[in-house]
Amino acid sequence: MNRLTRKLPPGLARTCAAVTATAVIGLLGTDVTSRWYRHLDKPAWQPPGAAFGPAWAMLYGLMALASSRTLDRLDEPAERRAFATAFGANMMLNAGWNWLFFKARRPGWALAEILLMEVSTLDLMRRAAHVDRPAAKMFIPYAGWVAFATALNASIARRNPKGQP
Fold it and tell me: Which one, 4, 96, 125, 165, has least CB within 10 Å?
């Protein structure tokens, strides 16, 4: 079978649906045009807004593929359920951050939440490494981006201690 005729991972449709739902829910909770957000004291090293969409599109694609590869290689139903639960929790944390930061206007709470998201991401990578090293490596950009976003969130929370500009 050549590269062009290989089948896609069987679970890819499900993991794509999960990351798509996460992206939509997160997007609904994001408001970069609000007066509150525009007036926050943000660090000079914050990427331009136009960088976030393409970065997240790539990261969501990698997460869907990595999670699908991992789930498809787990033989034990209990292990598959455990990974799927960890993946679902990560997606909830991912979507929830936007709501805490932008809608609730709580950079400090969002910081606590994104720290949990980073731990969750590293846990997914660890779990994937036990069954599929390439899948585990696909989580590296996500873990790196979440670490960067954590630093950015921490800087914004520090610069705006009451959550207000």
Answer: 4
